[in-house]
Task: inverse folding
């Protein structure tokens, strides 16, 4: 079988590469790559709203937090099983997406951004104040990796658990964007005002995009809870909503895998800078500004333009038999 | 048979009456041109019919259904389709994808989309993003979207604007042919297009209809010549 779709080919190649990580046996690599996959899913879910549907959200962390806390509460109080906790955590985002979406999606642009920020902070306040359930600022600890259905307590097992969901979701989201439903999402982002005159309600498209995005973000939150074993309200704070935006801008919002590249860069930058520099946040900010201003289309855009420049200058015409990278 | 009936339609923007008590009806498979000087209220009238704007007063009946309070997408699904004065497409999508977005609402098949692209000579641009196309081709894509929606009434807002002489000629031929299957309403400034195409002409000025009739009646109408053609 020959895969002609460049994005699918890249996802499969990335999965193959990620499968090699546990072979190193290095816990740090396993830890950092697991975090990369979780953040990638979070950033991909964000880019569905931002890059494809043209909706700038400042409250996306609410889905991450709802997924993480529901998984934590379910596994600690109902059934000690990470898989069951994950399923419940993901499903918990449905009512949140529908209610918040219904109340915010009639508005667009800055109004939508501010409303999502408000709802995000509402979730944060709830997590901090409702101590008896959420543990307040201490959060919830002891989220199990070993359960009645599955046991992912070893680093390799939880790594493969995360990788499985990472691959399935990355392919699933891509197929969604390529589907007729995804075409309407891309049309919404391209020219929202035109959609009603092609017989489509923009509100309905926004709502199902918000739902799919929320489901994916809560999946990343649930995986995070299981992976870390602890959840605190920080993951609902508005600054955490800005992280997938930064990752998306770093990697390139107009490329499907841009957010994945952005998440990788973000994690590398934060890990290296935090280790060696005192004012690492300042350096991170400068690095983000340099990449966003310096490379149109983020690092994804830079890689693509480098490919074309090399091809042109080398005089070697590489036959391109793949689909377009940009979708 | 009557396809559209507009009754006493009005729309004001603050003190300015853009459309002022307009009433008319369109007959099925008739090509009607809506003309008038700039600011006459033509585009506002189209915006009211296609629900881009809400009227202050009046009713719009389409094929016996009162559509006055419907949303733009519902009206489009009923069969009133429009193009825009300033080309309005999905710039990051390809030509095929632009037509496909429309086809998803109307049930137009892939084969039919390919047929539309072939009729408009857009096949070789099928996979090109429309933002990369020249203006004339973008106009054709706009028409392609409209056709993919399987319109019963197609309202074209200045379809010939910005086109070359040859393109205008070919547009007239295309629209004449289209007029045998679809009721057309064309807003146009180009009198060559208007008189070469229309079975009936409605003339607007200052938000009101000042003349309505066959092209020969309009061309000899003294008031029209005074107001619109600038003859004293």
Result:
């Amino acid at each position: 079988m020959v895969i002609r779709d460049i994005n699918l080919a890249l996802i499969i190649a990335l999965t193959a590469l990620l499968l090699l990580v546990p072979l190193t046996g290095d816990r740090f690599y396993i830890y950092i790559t697991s975090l990369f996959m979780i953040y990638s899913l979070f950033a991909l879910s964000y880019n569905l709203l931002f890059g494809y549907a043209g909706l700038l959200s400042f409250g996306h962390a609410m889905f991450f937090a709802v997924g993480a806390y529901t998984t934590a509460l379910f596994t600690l109080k109902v059934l000690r099983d990470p898989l069951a906790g994950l399923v419940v955590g993901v499903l918990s985002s449905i009512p949140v997406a529908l209610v918040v979406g219904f109340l915010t999606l009639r508005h667009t642009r800055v109004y939508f951004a501010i409303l999502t920020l408000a709802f995000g902070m509402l979730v944060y306040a709830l997590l901090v104040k409702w101590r008896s359930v959420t543990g307040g600022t201490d959060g919830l600890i002891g989220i199990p990796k070993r359960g009645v259905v599955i046991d992912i307590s070893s680093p390799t097992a939880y790594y493969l658990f995360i990788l499985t969901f990472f691959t399935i979701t990355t392919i699933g989201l891509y197929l969604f964007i390529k589907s007729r439903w995804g075409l309407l999402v891309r049309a919404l982002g391209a020219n929202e005002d035109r959609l009603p005159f092609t017989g489509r309600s923009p509100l309905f498209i926004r709502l199902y995009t918000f739902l799919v995005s929320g489901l994916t973000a809560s999946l990343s939150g649930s995986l995070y809870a299981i992976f870390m074993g602890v959840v605190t309200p920080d993951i609902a704070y508005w600054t955490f909503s800005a992280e997938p935006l930064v990752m998306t801008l770093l990697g390139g919002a107009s490329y499907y895998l841009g957010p994945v590249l952005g998440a990788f860069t973000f994690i590398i930058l934060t890990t290296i800078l935090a280790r060696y520099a005192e004012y690492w946040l300042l350096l991170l900010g400068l690095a983000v500004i340099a990449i966003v201003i310096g490379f149109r289309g983020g690092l994804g855009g830079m890689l693509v333009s480098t490919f074309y420049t090399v091809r042109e200058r080398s005089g070697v015409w590489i036959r391109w038999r793949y689909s377009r990278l940009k979708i | 048979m009557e396809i559209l009936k507009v009754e006493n339609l009005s729309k004001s923007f603050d003190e300015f009456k853009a459309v002022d008590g307009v009433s008319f009806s369109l007959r099925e498979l008739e090509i009607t041109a809506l003309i008038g000087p700039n600011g006459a209220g033509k585009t506002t009238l189209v915006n009211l019919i296609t629900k881009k704007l809400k009227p202050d007063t009046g009713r719009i009946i389409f094929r016996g259904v009162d559509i006055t309070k419907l949303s733009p997408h519902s009206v489009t699904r009923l069969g009133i389709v429009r193009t825009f004065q300033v080309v309005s497409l999905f710039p990051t999508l390809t030509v095929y994808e632009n037509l496909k977005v429309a086809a998803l609402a109307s049930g137009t098949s892939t084969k039919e989309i390919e047929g539309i692209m072939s009729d408009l000579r857009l096949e070789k641009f099928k996979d090109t993003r429309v933002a990369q196309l020249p203006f004339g081709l973008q106009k054709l894509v706009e028409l392609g979207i409209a056709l993919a929606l399987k319109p019963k009434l197609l309202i074209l807002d200045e379809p010939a604007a910005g086109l070359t002489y040859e393109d205008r000629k070919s547009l007239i031929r295309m629209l004449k042919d289209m007029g045998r299957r679809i009721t057309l309403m064309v807003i146009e400034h180009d009198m060559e297009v208007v008189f070469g195409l229309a079975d009936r002409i409605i003339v607007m000025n200052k938000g009101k209809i000042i003349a309505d009739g066959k092209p020969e009646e309009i061309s000899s109408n003294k008031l029209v010549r005074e107001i619109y053609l600038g003859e004293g």
Remarks:
- Chain B has a mean pLDDT of 91.
